[in-house]
Q: What sequence folds into this?
């Protein structure tokens, strides 16, 4: 049995996506306009294109990848780092929603900085000051300067606390 | 340990910066904002009449949502409105928020706090969109009508420059002789389709089925597609129609708009003498070829009536500010102050008109 | 209108008009340079101010902001590989590699001069030929627009290095993503799963922030590549380019200018499309197409000349026909209405001085911006001296902020994360993101023009091939796909015969 390389996995993933698109497209109600193919036409085309080129890629690119060797995209440590940064981004989004942009940006900047520095040593106080300044300038610049709303934090709204 | 303490320090500093504040003039995400001023909180209970100063004390921020991108018609009307309100109520901040996605704008306004500081501006075409299933927001059930910001304006019915018809009557004859041939561009299921439909159906019963309705939503598309001959008929603002006609790129068949639209009133509105080809549907012998589609300012449904009445007075005052009148004139829109009770009646009537239109057009799904 | 130019110049050089033009041009540049923000945002912010201002001053500010915003969008693309807007996606492909090769100064110089040439020359063309070009715009219907979009996609799919099949797969994935939300013809909701935030589809800024910014930062961190590119301090001062740089790339410059101008004046199209088409065409025309993507000069010339040429292009329908060439000119048109002006075909005749003034502002602000950028160029690469962890943590936060402020929706902030993960997945599978981006940008237009073309022609599909301009575009599209295969076949047969 052929070992699954990334191209084959890609092909399978997108074939499943194509099937999903076809099923969901079938559920789209037709609100007909005369003489035009309707809202289902292009989703079907996209599904057909995805399926076709997923198969072609598996057929032609898959064996090439087998021949050239299947170098891992990332090693185990790399995948852990990827998970960490994405998890931090998720927490940042959640903080932004519940604690507001101001707090989220200050904390988030510090956490991202700490993560992205890797093995380097940084001045913690400088990092804290940088984070506070960046978050504060962005928040007040947008909300007071440009009058563009940024999330104030739904937790504070629930508690009846008003952010600056 | 040092790193942990630094992180803890940062978190503590951040959280300690959260402050209770009596000031509500920070722009916040509108849907999550619960910054009800004390005055607004007091108004929830009673039928006691309020003044606008009670609802909008100095320092209040009022949010007006526009469920459309910046630069469009609704946005411009809203900016004229906030400009006028700003002149009248100097201590109050008015913030216009645009939404790229109409539905998101409508939903946000629907779910906003009913404290007299959150509103939505939209035209009555929103009723048609609900009835035809294009939106899930029911303007009748989900909002409280606060006021009418303008009565809408007449639209010119345009045709390609080489069209074999030059007025509504000739158009009617052409449709009868060439069924299935005429292509009309409009926002399908929207106000422009309803407006043009009132003309077409007025030409003869069943004429609405004898033409092809195609999607052509923006003013720019309508002008270019009609001028290029890609479509036969569309609607556009009278000032644009005049410009294109003068350049020989379009034929004007007539106009459709509120009942008050006559050659005389439209000429006065635009400050220029309109020629006969801008005559309205009734003036061309089609009495039902009118279209009432006012622009409203709506508040979340549970906004107390006394608050709505107070804000209505502010809107009426804004409608008498010269800059507001001039701005609406520039956009060929009729303006007159409409009191709270009349605004309710107007909306009810226009809802009824949209419902009838939707049934006639065969697009009513609710 | 040309006769009114001297008067317009006189108005422009009035102190307040001139100073505000410079200031707004610089602010536009800064906004354009920051990923997630744009010159359009700046115009939205100052638009309410124009109520109270004099007409000439208002347009000085608005037009300069527009020009600055488009001019500045290459800076982030070159220095950090994240486009300031969709107009500079193509600039990332060679601008950032050139920076990584230690030639940030040269990349910036090409971006600066390319922006200037695109802006200035397109304005001159617009002044001289706006009437004739506007007439061409009115000859085109949905059939021609569909064929043009199809041609654009087929030209660009060939851009992707590596597997053509993966490139096409990426393109169809982009097409699918463009189907999310209400369709542009009947507003039928598709793939929204009841989520109102998806009713308007996926916002292009959100897609950019996810697929470019978040994906890039996450991947670089995961691979342990958090290093800033070296900066060649010696080349920071001075012009940075020689006459030979211009002459060697003249063909690319001219073709890209024409592409940007043409795409720009078509209502509803924009620089997000023209920069990728110009890049594709430059690669096709070049003797060394394999060098594209490695930090190659023509790659930056093509994208920056074309996206800035779109500025002059977009002004043509705005001034000559009163219709917007792109999203930003919508705002400029509303400014005209606010000032009681009537845009339209008669605008030049009724307001010749103001029409001339708008073009004069564009030209003079582009000259001012080029001098300011050349002078401040020495400081831009200082950004690269900032530690990676500070710079990119700030970029991440600003990207999420930009995603929220563009859409006023927290959902889209989460969507940046989801799209970032999609971008990572594409990278893992070796699928290029360019075809996805272009198909996404064009997908909605392709669909709506095709369906509108069908309905306008009452179901007659032959109208797509019986209209001459549409036919030409379709033939180019077909040749873009099968042409390389045929040429390859011919070459191999010739090689076989000779052997």
A:
């Amino acid at each position: 049995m052929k070992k699954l390389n990334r191209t084959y996995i890609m092909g399978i993933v997108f074939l499943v996506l194509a099937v999903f698109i076809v099923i969901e497209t079938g559920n789209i109600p037709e609100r007909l306009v005369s003489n035009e193919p309707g809202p289902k036409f292009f989703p079907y085309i996209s599904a057909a294109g995805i399926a076709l080129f997923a198969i072609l890629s598996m057929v032609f690119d898959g064996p090439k990848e087998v021949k050239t060797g299947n170098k891992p995209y990332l090693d185990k440590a790399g995948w852990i780092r990827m998970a960490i940064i994405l998890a931090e981004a998720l927490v940042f989004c959640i903080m932004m929603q519940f604690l507001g942009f101001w707090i989220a940006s200050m904390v988030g900047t510090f956490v991202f900085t700490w993560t992205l520095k890797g093995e380097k040593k940084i001045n913690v106080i400088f990092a804290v000051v940088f984070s506070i300044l960046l978050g504060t300038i962005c928040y007040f610049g947008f909300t007071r300067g440009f009058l563009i709303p940024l999330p104030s934090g739904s937790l504070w709204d629930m508690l009846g606390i008003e952010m600056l | 340990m040092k790193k942990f303490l630094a992180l803890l320090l940062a978190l503590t500093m951040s959280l300690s910066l959260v402050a209770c504040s009596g000031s509500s003039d920070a722009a916040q995400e509108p849907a999550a904002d619960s910054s009800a001023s004390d005055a607004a909180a007091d108004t929830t209970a009673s039928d006691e009449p309020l003044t606008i100063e009670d609802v909008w004390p100095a320092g209040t921020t009022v949010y007006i949502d526009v469920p459309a991108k910046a630069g469009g018609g609704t946005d411009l009307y809203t900016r004229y409105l906030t400009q006028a309100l700003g002149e009248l109520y100097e201590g109050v901040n008015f913030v216009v928020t645009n939404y790229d996605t109409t539905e998101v704008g409508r939903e946000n306004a629907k779910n906003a706090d009913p404290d007299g500081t959150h509103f939505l501006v939209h035209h009555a075409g929103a009723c048609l969109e609900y009835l035809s299933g294009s939106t899930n927001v029911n303007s009748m059930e989900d909002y409280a009508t606060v006021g009418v910001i303008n009565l809408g304006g007449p639209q010119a019915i345009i045709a390609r420059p080489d069209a074999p018809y030059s007025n509504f009557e000739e158009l009617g004859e052409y449709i009868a002789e060439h069924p299935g041939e005429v292509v009309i561009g409009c926002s399908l299921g929207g106000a422009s389709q309803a407006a043009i439909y009132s003309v077409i159906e007025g030409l003869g019963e069943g004429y609405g089925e004898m033409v092809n309705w195609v999607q052509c939503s923006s003013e720019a598309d309508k002008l270019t597609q009609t001028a290029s001959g890609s479509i036969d008929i569309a609607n556009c603002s009278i000032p644009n129609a005049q410009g294109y006609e003068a350049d020989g790129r379009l034929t004007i068949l007539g106009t459709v708009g509120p009942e008050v639209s006559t050659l005389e009133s439209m000429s006065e509105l635009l400050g220029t003498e309109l020629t006969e080809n801008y005559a309205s549907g009734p003036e061309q012998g089609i009495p039902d070829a009118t279209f009432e589609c006012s622009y409203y300012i709506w508040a979340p449904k549970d906004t107390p009536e006394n608050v709505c009445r107070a804000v209505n007075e502010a809107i009426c005052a804004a409608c008498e500010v010269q800059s507001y009148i001039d701005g609406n004139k520039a956009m060929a829109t009729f303006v007159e102050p409409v009191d709270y009770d009349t605004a309710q009646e107007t909306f009810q009537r226009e809802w009824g008109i949209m419902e009838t239109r939707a049934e006639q057009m065969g697009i009513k799904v609710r | 209108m040309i006769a009114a130019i001297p008067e317009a110049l006189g108005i422009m050089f009035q102190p307040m008009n001139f100073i505000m033009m410079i200031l707004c041009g610089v602010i536009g540049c800064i906004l354009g340079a920051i990923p997630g923000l744009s010159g359009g945002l700046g115009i939205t912010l100052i638009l309410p101010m124009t109520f109270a201002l004099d007409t000439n001053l208002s347009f000085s500010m608005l037009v300069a902001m527009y020009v600055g915003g488009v001019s500045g969008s290459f800076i982030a693309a070159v220095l950090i590989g994240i486009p300031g807007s969709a107009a500079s996606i193509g600039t990332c492909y060679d601008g950032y590699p050139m920076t990584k090769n230690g030639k940030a100064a040269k990349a910036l110089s090409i971006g600066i001069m390319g922006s200037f040439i695109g802006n200035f020359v397109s304005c001159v063309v617009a002044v001289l030929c706006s009437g004739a070009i506007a007439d061409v715009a009115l000859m085109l219907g949905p059939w021609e627009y569909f064929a043009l979009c199809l041609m654009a996609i087929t030209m660009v799919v060939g851009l992707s290095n590596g597997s053509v099949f993966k490139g096409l797969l990426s393109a169809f994935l982009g097409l699918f993503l463009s189907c999310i939300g209400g369709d542009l013809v009947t507003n039928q909701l598709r793939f929204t799963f009841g989520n109102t935030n998806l009713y308007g589809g996926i916002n292009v800024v959100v897609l950019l922030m996810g697929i470019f910014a978040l994906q890039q930062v996450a991947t670089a961190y995961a691979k342990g590549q958090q290093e800033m590119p070296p900066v060649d301090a010696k080349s920071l001062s001075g012009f940075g380019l020689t006459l030979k740089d211009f002459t060697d790339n003249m063909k690319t410059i001219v073709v890209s200018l024409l592409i940007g101008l043409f795409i720009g004046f078509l209502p509803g199209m924009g620089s997000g499309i023209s920069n990728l088409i110009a890049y594709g065409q430059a690669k096709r025309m070049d003797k060394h197409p394999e060098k594209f993507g490695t930090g190659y000069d023509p790659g930056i010339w093509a994208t920056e000349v074309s996206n800035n040429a779109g500025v002059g292009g977009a002004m043509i329908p705005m001034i000559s026909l009163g219709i917007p060439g792109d999203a930003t000119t919508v705002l400029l048109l509303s400014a005209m209405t606010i000032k009681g002006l009537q845009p339209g075909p008669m605008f030049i005749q009724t307001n010749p001085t103001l029409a001339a003034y708008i073009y004069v502002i564009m030209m003079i602000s582009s000259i001012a911006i080029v001098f300011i950028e050349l002078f401040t160029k020495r400081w831009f690469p200082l950004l690269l001296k900032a530690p990676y962890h500070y710079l990119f943590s700030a970029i991440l936060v600003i990207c999420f902020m930009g995603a929220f402020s563009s859409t006023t929706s927290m959902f889209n902030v989460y969507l940046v994360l989801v799209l970032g993960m999609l971008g990572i997945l594409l990278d893992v599978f070796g699928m290029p993101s360019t075809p996805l981006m272009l198909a996404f940008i064009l997908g909605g237009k392709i669909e709506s023009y095709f369906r509108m073309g069908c309905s306008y022609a009452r179901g007659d599909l032959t109208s797509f091939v019986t209209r001459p301009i549409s036919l030409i575009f379709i033939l180019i599209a077909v040749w873009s796909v099968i042409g390389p295969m045929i040429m390859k076949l011919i070459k191999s047969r010739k090689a076989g015969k000779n052997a």
In short: Chain B has two domains: 52-152+293-361, 155-284.
